Amino acid sequence: MRTALVIGTGLIGTSAALALAARGVTVHLSDHDPDRARTAAALGAGTDEPPAGPVDLAIVAVPPAHVAATLADAMRRGAARGYIDVASVKQGPRRDLEAQGCDLSTYIGTHPMAGKEKSGPLAGTADLFEGRPWVLTPTRDSDTEVFNLALELIALCRAVPVVMDADAHDRAVALVSHTPQLVSSLVAARLEEADETAVRLCGQGIRDVTRIAASEPRMWVEILSANPGPVADVLSSVAADLDETVRSLRALQSADQDKRQGGAEGVEDVLRRGNAGRVRVPGKHGSAPTAYETVTVLISDQPGQLARIFADAGAAGVNIEDVRIEHATGQQAGRVQLTVQPSAVEGLTRTLTERGWSLRP
User: Fold this and answer.
1) Total domains, the chain
2) Whether residues 135 and 247 fall in one domain
3) What's the rounded Cα separation, in Å, for the pair 255 and 13?
4) Whole-model pTM?
5) pLDDT digit string (tens) for 256-276?
6) Which terminal residue of the chain, N or C, has fewer Cβ atoms less than 10 Å from its own Cβ?
7) What does DSSP say about strands 26-30 and 133-137: parallel, antiparallel, or unpaired?
8) Helix, coil or strand: residue 193
9) Domain with 223 in it
10) pLDDT in tens, 9-22
11) Which residues make beta-bridge pairs with 7?
12) What is the Cα–Cα distance from 46 to 20, expressed in whole angstroms?
Protein backbone atom coordinates (compact mmCIF):
# COMPACT_ATOMS: atom_id res chain seq x y z
CA MET A 1 0.00 0.00 0.00
CA ARG A 2 1.40 3.34 -1.07
CA THR A 3 -1.62 5.64 -0.87
CA ALA A 4 -4.75 5.80 1.25
CA LEU A 5 -7.78 8.03 1.64
CA VAL A 6 -9.22 8.41 5.14
CA ILE A 7 -12.78 9.74 5.08
CA GLY A 8 -13.71 10.93 8.56
CA THR A 9 -11.02 12.34 10.82
CA GLY A 10 -12.34 11.52 14.25
CA LEU A 11 -10.51 9.37 16.79
CA ILE A 12 -10.38 6.18 14.69
CA GLY A 13 -9.78 7.77 11.30
CA THR A 14 -7.05 10.08 12.57
CA SER A 15 -5.36 7.27 14.52
CA ALA A 16 -5.30 5.02 11.44
CA ALA A 17 -3.97 7.89 9.33
CA LEU A 18 -1.23 8.65 11.87
CA ALA A 19 -0.16 5.00 11.91
CA LEU A 20 -0.08 4.78 8.10
CA ALA A 21 1.72 8.11 7.64
CA ALA A 22 4.35 7.08 10.21
CA ARG A 23 5.09 4.00 8.08
CA GLY A 24 5.53 5.84 4.80
CA VAL A 25 2.04 5.67 3.29
CA THR A 26 0.80 8.84 1.58
CA VAL A 27 -2.49 9.58 3.34
CA HIS A 28 -5.17 11.94 2.06
CA LEU A 29 -7.69 13.21 4.62
CA SER A 30 -11.32 14.12 4.05
CA ASP A 31 -14.07 15.17 6.43
CA HIS A 32 -17.46 16.90 6.18
CA ASP A 33 -15.90 19.45 8.54
CA PRO A 34 -12.76 20.76 6.78
CA ASP A 35 -11.39 22.07 10.08
CA ARG A 36 -11.19 18.53 11.45
CA ALA A 37 -9.26 17.35 8.40
CA ARG A 38 -6.89 20.32 8.71
CA THR A 39 -6.38 19.53 12.39
CA ALA A 40 -5.55 15.90 11.60
CA ALA A 41 -3.14 17.04 8.88
CA ALA A 42 -1.44 19.41 11.32
CA LEU A 43 -0.93 16.46 13.68
CA GLY A 44 1.01 14.62 10.97
CA ALA A 45 -1.78 12.30 9.81
CA GLY A 46 -1.43 13.22 6.14
CA THR A 47 -2.61 15.94 3.80
CA ASP A 48 -6.05 17.46 3.46
CA GLU A 49 -5.45 17.91 -0.26
CA PRO A 50 -7.52 15.53 -2.44
CA PRO A 51 -5.64 12.76 -4.26
CA ALA A 52 -4.89 13.24 -7.96
CA GLY A 53 -6.35 9.83 -8.78
CA PRO A 54 -7.54 6.59 -7.23
CA VAL A 55 -5.70 5.57 -4.07
CA ASP A 56 -4.93 2.02 -3.03
CA LEU A 57 -7.37 1.91 -0.11
CA ALA A 58 -10.21 4.16 1.07
CA ILE A 59 -10.92 3.94 4.81
CA VAL A 60 -14.39 5.20 5.75
CA ALA A 61 -14.41 6.26 9.40
CA VAL A 62 -17.80 7.91 9.81
CA PRO A 63 -20.75 7.08 12.14
CA PRO A 64 -22.66 3.89 11.23
CA ALA A 65 -25.70 5.75 9.90
CA HIS A 66 -23.53 7.49 7.28
CA VAL A 67 -21.27 4.60 6.28
CA ALA A 68 -23.28 3.31 3.33
CA ALA A 69 -23.89 6.72 1.76
CA THR A 70 -20.24 7.71 2.18
CA LEU A 71 -18.99 4.42 0.71
CA ALA A 72 -21.43 4.59 -2.19
CA ASP A 73 -20.27 8.11 -3.03
CA ALA A 74 -16.60 7.11 -2.91
CA MET A 75 -17.27 4.07 -5.10
CA ARG A 76 -19.15 6.10 -7.68
CA ARG A 77 -16.20 8.50 -7.85
CA GLY A 78 -13.75 5.63 -8.27
CA ALA A 79 -11.79 6.95 -5.30
CA ALA A 80 -9.84 3.75 -4.61
CA ARG A 81 -8.95 0.20 -5.63
CA GLY A 82 -10.48 -1.07 -2.41
CA TYR A 83 -12.82 0.18 0.29
CA ILE A 84 -13.29 -0.60 3.97
CA ASP A 85 -15.22 0.95 6.81
CA VAL A 86 -14.35 0.87 10.51
CA ALA A 87 -17.83 1.25 12.00
CA SER A 88 -18.69 -0.70 15.14
CA VAL A 89 -21.58 -2.53 13.42
CA LYS A 90 -21.22 -4.50 10.23
CA GLN A 91 -24.45 -6.03 8.93
CA GLY A 92 -26.47 -2.81 8.55
CA PRO A 93 -24.00 -0.91 6.33
CA ARG A 94 -23.58 -3.93 4.07
CA ARG A 95 -27.34 -4.32 3.63
CA ASP A 96 -27.61 -0.62 2.79
CA LEU A 97 -24.84 -0.91 0.18
CA GLU A 98 -26.57 -3.89 -1.39
CA ALA A 99 -29.82 -1.93 -1.52
CA GLN A 100 -28.01 0.84 -3.39
CA GLY A 101 -26.69 -1.62 -5.98
CA CYS A 102 -23.02 -1.08 -5.16
CA ASP A 103 -20.29 -3.48 -6.29
CA LEU A 104 -19.42 -5.20 -3.04
CA SER A 105 -16.45 -7.13 -4.41
CA THR A 106 -14.22 -4.12 -3.69
CA TYR A 107 -15.54 -3.63 -0.13
CA ILE A 108 -14.86 -5.33 3.20
CA GLY A 109 -16.43 -4.32 6.49
CA THR A 110 -13.96 -4.05 9.35
CA HIS A 111 -13.96 -2.95 12.98
CA PRO A 112 -10.87 -2.18 15.08
CA MET A 113 -11.62 -3.06 18.72
CA ALA A 114 -9.94 0.02 20.12
CA GLY A 115 -11.08 3.41 21.30
CA LYS A 116 -11.23 5.98 24.06
CA GLU A 117 -13.87 7.89 25.93
CA LYS A 118 -12.56 10.95 24.07
CA SER A 119 -13.32 11.71 20.43
CA GLY A 120 -12.11 13.94 17.60
CA PRO A 121 -8.80 14.22 15.78
CA LEU A 122 -6.93 15.58 18.81
CA ALA A 123 -7.62 12.30 20.62
CA GLY A 124 -5.97 10.27 17.85
CA THR A 125 -2.71 8.40 18.42
CA ALA A 126 -0.60 6.28 16.09
CA ASP A 127 -0.43 3.44 18.64
CA LEU A 128 -4.18 3.22 19.32
CA PHE A 129 -4.54 -0.17 17.59
CA GLU A 130 -1.31 -1.85 18.67
CA GLY A 131 -2.02 -5.37 19.91
CA ARG A 132 -5.78 -4.87 19.59
CA PRO A 133 -8.14 -7.14 17.62
CA TRP A 134 -9.24 -5.75 14.25
CA VAL A 135 -12.24 -7.63 12.88
CA LEU A 136 -12.74 -8.27 9.17
CA THR A 137 -16.08 -9.49 7.80
CA PRO A 138 -15.39 -10.60 4.21
CA THR A 139 -17.92 -12.55 2.17
CA ARG A 140 -17.55 -14.99 -0.72
CA ASP A 141 -17.83 -11.96 -3.05
CA SER A 142 -14.90 -10.10 -1.48
CA ASP A 143 -11.97 -9.56 -3.82
CA THR A 144 -8.70 -11.14 -2.65
CA GLU A 145 -6.75 -7.98 -3.48
CA VAL A 146 -9.01 -5.88 -1.24
CA PHE A 147 -8.74 -8.45 1.54
CA ASN A 148 -4.95 -8.28 1.29
CA LEU A 149 -5.05 -4.47 1.40
CA ALA A 150 -7.15 -4.64 4.56
CA LEU A 151 -4.68 -7.08 6.11
CA GLU A 152 -1.82 -4.78 5.18
CA LEU A 153 -3.59 -1.86 6.85
CA ILE A 154 -4.04 -3.91 10.01
CA ALA A 155 -0.39 -4.94 9.96
CA LEU A 156 0.77 -1.34 9.50
CA CYS A 157 -1.40 -0.34 12.47
CA ARG A 158 0.14 -3.27 14.40
CA ALA A 159 -3.26 -4.71 15.23
CA VAL A 160 -4.34 -8.37 15.23
CA PRO A 161 -6.67 -9.50 12.40
CA VAL A 162 -9.77 -11.50 13.35
CA VAL A 163 -12.13 -12.81 10.65
CA MET A 164 -15.81 -13.07 11.61
CA ASP A 165 -19.27 -13.26 10.12
CA ALA A 166 -20.98 -9.85 10.20
CA ASP A 167 -23.98 -11.02 12.26
CA ALA A 168 -21.73 -12.81 14.76
CA HIS A 169 -19.65 -9.64 15.06
CA ASP A 170 -22.69 -7.48 15.80
CA ARG A 171 -23.88 -9.88 18.51
CA ALA A 172 -20.38 -10.00 20.00
CA VAL A 173 -19.90 -6.22 20.22
CA ALA A 174 -23.37 -5.89 21.74
CA LEU A 175 -22.04 -7.96 24.65
CA VAL A 176 -18.47 -6.72 25.02
CA SER A 177 -18.74 -3.07 23.93
CA HIS A 178 -22.23 -1.62 23.53
CA THR A 179 -23.86 -3.02 26.68
CA PRO A 180 -20.90 -2.04 28.93
CA GLN A 181 -21.27 1.54 27.67
CA LEU A 182 -24.93 1.64 28.69
CA VAL A 183 -24.33 -0.08 32.04
CA SER A 184 -21.51 2.36 32.82
CA SER A 185 -23.80 5.27 31.99
CA LEU A 186 -26.62 3.83 34.10
CA VAL A 187 -24.36 3.56 37.15
CA ALA A 188 -22.88 7.05 36.57
CA ALA A 189 -26.40 8.49 36.25
CA ARG A 190 -27.03 7.51 39.89
CA LEU A 191 -24.36 10.06 40.85
CA GLU A 192 -26.03 13.03 39.16
CA GLU A 193 -28.42 13.76 42.02
CA ALA A 194 -26.45 12.00 44.75
CA ASP A 195 -25.62 13.81 47.97
CA GLU A 196 -22.24 15.58 47.81
CA THR A 197 -21.08 13.64 50.86
CA ALA A 198 -21.61 10.36 49.00
CA VAL A 199 -19.84 11.62 45.88
CA ARG A 200 -16.79 12.62 47.92
CA LEU A 201 -16.44 8.98 48.95
CA CYS A 202 -15.96 7.81 45.36
CA GLY A 203 -13.05 5.39 45.15
CA GLN A 204 -11.33 3.38 42.46
CA GLY A 205 -14.26 0.99 42.04
CA ILE A 206 -16.73 3.65 40.93
CA ARG A 207 -14.05 5.30 38.78
CA ASP A 208 -13.40 2.01 36.98
CA VAL A 209 -17.08 1.31 36.39
CA THR A 210 -17.96 4.82 35.18
CA ARG A 211 -14.85 5.69 33.12
CA ILE A 212 -16.49 5.14 29.74
CA ALA A 213 -19.62 7.01 30.84
CA ALA A 214 -17.65 10.13 29.87
CA SER A 215 -18.09 9.18 26.17
CA GLU A 216 -19.89 11.44 23.70
CA PRO A 217 -23.68 10.72 23.92
CA ARG A 218 -24.52 11.64 20.32
CA MET A 219 -21.88 9.29 18.97
CA TRP A 220 -23.23 6.44 21.08
CA VAL A 221 -26.83 7.10 20.07
CA GLU A 222 -25.73 6.57 16.47
CA ILE A 223 -23.84 3.38 17.33
CA LEU A 224 -26.68 1.91 19.39
CA SER A 225 -29.25 2.87 16.76
CA ALA A 226 -27.35 0.65 14.32
CA ASN A 227 -27.35 -2.39 16.65
CA PRO A 228 -30.43 -2.08 18.89
CA GLY A 229 -31.71 -5.67 18.79
CA PRO A 230 -28.59 -7.51 20.00
CA VAL A 231 -27.96 -4.86 22.66
CA ALA A 232 -31.54 -5.12 23.90
CA ASP A 233 -31.17 -8.93 24.09
CA VAL A 234 -28.07 -8.65 26.29
CA LEU A 235 -29.64 -5.96 28.48
CA SER A 236 -32.72 -8.14 28.89
CA SER A 237 -30.53 -10.89 30.35
CA VAL A 238 -28.76 -8.37 32.58
CA ALA A 239 -32.16 -7.07 33.73
CA ALA A 240 -33.23 -10.61 34.66
CA ASP A 241 -30.08 -11.00 36.74
CA LEU A 242 -30.72 -7.62 38.36
CA ASP A 243 -34.29 -8.59 39.25
CA GLU A 244 -33.09 -11.82 40.82
CA THR A 245 -30.34 -10.00 42.72
CA VAL A 246 -32.83 -7.44 44.05
CA ARG A 247 -35.04 -10.27 45.30
CA SER A 248 -32.03 -11.88 46.97
CA LEU A 249 -31.05 -8.62 48.67
CA ARG A 250 -34.62 -8.09 49.91
CA ALA A 251 -34.57 -11.62 51.28
CA LEU A 252 -31.47 -10.73 53.33
CA GLN A 253 -33.68 -8.26 55.21
CA SER A 254 -36.17 -10.95 56.17
CA ALA A 255 -36.62 -12.17 59.73
CA ASP A 256 -36.95 -15.69 58.32
CA GLN A 257 -33.63 -17.55 58.49
CA ASP A 258 -34.38 -19.70 55.43
CA LYS A 259 -35.18 -16.63 53.34
CA ARG A 260 -31.98 -14.95 54.47
CA GLN A 261 -30.00 -18.05 53.55
CA GLY A 262 -31.65 -18.15 50.12
CA GLY A 263 -30.87 -14.46 49.63
CA ALA A 264 -27.22 -14.98 50.51
CA GLU A 265 -26.99 -17.87 48.07
CA GLY A 266 -28.56 -15.75 45.32
CA VAL A 267 -26.07 -12.92 45.83
CA GLU A 268 -23.17 -15.35 46.00
CA ASP A 269 -24.32 -17.00 42.77
CA VAL A 270 -24.16 -13.80 40.73
CA LEU A 271 -20.80 -12.87 42.27
CA ARG A 272 -19.36 -16.28 41.46
CA ARG A 273 -20.68 -16.15 37.89
CA GLY A 274 -19.05 -12.74 37.65
CA ASN A 275 -15.75 -14.28 38.77
CA ALA A 276 -16.07 -16.98 36.14
CA GLY A 277 -16.82 -14.49 33.38
CA ARG A 278 -14.02 -12.13 34.39
CA VAL A 279 -11.48 -14.95 34.20
CA ARG A 280 -12.32 -15.38 30.49
CA VAL A 281 -11.37 -11.80 29.59
CA PRO A 282 -8.17 -11.92 27.50
CA GLY A 283 -4.97 -10.58 29.00
CA LYS A 284 -2.64 -7.95 27.64
CA HIS A 285 -2.43 -7.76 23.82
CA GLY A 286 -5.32 -10.21 23.47
CA SER A 287 -3.39 -13.11 24.97
CA ALA A 288 -4.97 -15.87 27.01
CA PRO A 289 -6.23 -14.77 30.44
CA THR A 290 -3.34 -14.43 32.85
CA ALA A 291 -3.41 -14.43 36.65
CA TYR A 292 -1.47 -11.40 37.85
CA GLU A 293 -0.57 -10.17 41.32
CA THR A 294 -0.87 -6.62 42.65
CA VAL A 295 1.72 -4.75 44.69
CA THR A 296 0.26 -1.65 46.34
CA VAL A 297 2.53 1.31 47.14
CA LEU A 298 1.65 4.39 49.18
CA ILE A 299 2.80 7.61 47.47
CA SER A 300 2.63 11.31 48.31
CA ASP A 301 1.13 13.84 45.92
CA GLN A 302 4.45 15.25 44.75
CA PRO A 303 6.11 15.56 41.34
CA GLY A 304 8.28 12.64 40.29
CA GLN A 305 6.81 9.98 42.57
CA LEU A 306 5.49 7.79 39.76
CA ALA A 307 8.72 8.11 37.79
CA ARG A 308 10.68 6.95 40.85
CA ILE A 309 8.46 3.90 41.32
CA PHE A 310 8.80 2.87 37.68
CA ALA A 311 12.55 3.41 37.80
CA ASP A 312 12.85 1.31 40.94
CA ALA A 313 10.71 -1.43 39.38
CA GLY A 314 13.02 -1.35 36.36
CA ALA A 315 16.03 -1.65 38.64
CA ALA A 316 14.42 -4.78 40.08
CA GLY A 317 14.10 -6.18 36.55
CA VAL A 318 10.32 -6.23 36.82
CA ASN A 319 7.93 -5.45 33.95
CA ILE A 320 4.82 -3.55 35.06
CA GLU A 321 1.88 -5.15 33.25
CA ASP A 322 -0.64 -2.51 34.36
CA VAL A 323 -0.95 0.35 36.82
CA ARG A 324 -3.82 1.99 38.67
CA ILE A 325 -3.83 5.01 40.95
CA GLU A 326 -6.28 5.41 43.80
CA HIS A 327 -6.37 8.80 45.50
CA ALA A 328 -7.08 9.02 49.20
CA THR A 329 -10.12 11.24 49.79
CA GLY A 330 -9.20 14.58 51.34
CA GLN A 331 -5.50 13.74 51.60
CA GLN A 332 -2.39 14.62 49.61
CA ALA A 333 -1.60 10.97 49.16
CA GLY A 334 -2.64 7.97 47.12
CA ARG A 335 -1.99 4.33 46.38
CA VAL A 336 -0.39 2.98 43.24
CA GLN A 337 -1.38 -0.57 42.35
CA LEU A 338 1.31 -2.24 40.25
CA THR A 339 0.14 -5.34 38.37
CA VAL A 340 2.95 -7.83 37.77
CA GLN A 341 3.60 -11.49 37.07
CA PRO A 342 3.30 -13.59 40.27
CA SER A 343 6.95 -14.61 40.00
CA ALA A 344 7.99 -10.93 40.16
CA VAL A 345 6.20 -10.04 43.40
CA GLU A 346 8.94 -11.07 45.82
CA GLY A 347 11.75 -9.24 44.02
CA LEU A 348 9.67 -6.10 43.44
CA THR A 349 8.50 -5.99 47.05
CA ARG A 350 12.04 -6.39 48.35
CA THR A 351 13.47 -3.69 46.07
CA LEU A 352 10.73 -1.17 46.81
CA THR A 353 11.03 -1.72 50.56
CA GLU A 354 14.80 -1.30 50.40
CA ARG A 355 14.36 1.98 48.55
CA GLY A 356 12.07 3.43 51.20
CA TRP A 357 8.61 2.85 49.74
CA SER A 358 5.73 2.05 52.06
CA LEU A 359 3.79 -0.99 50.85
CA ARG A 360 0.19 -1.81 51.65
CA PRO A 361 -1.62 -5.16 51.61
Assistant:
1) 3
2) no
3) 59
4) 0.74
5) 999 999 999 999 999 999 999
6) C
7) unpaired
8) coil
9) 171-276
10) 999 999 999 999 99
11) 30, 60
12) 9
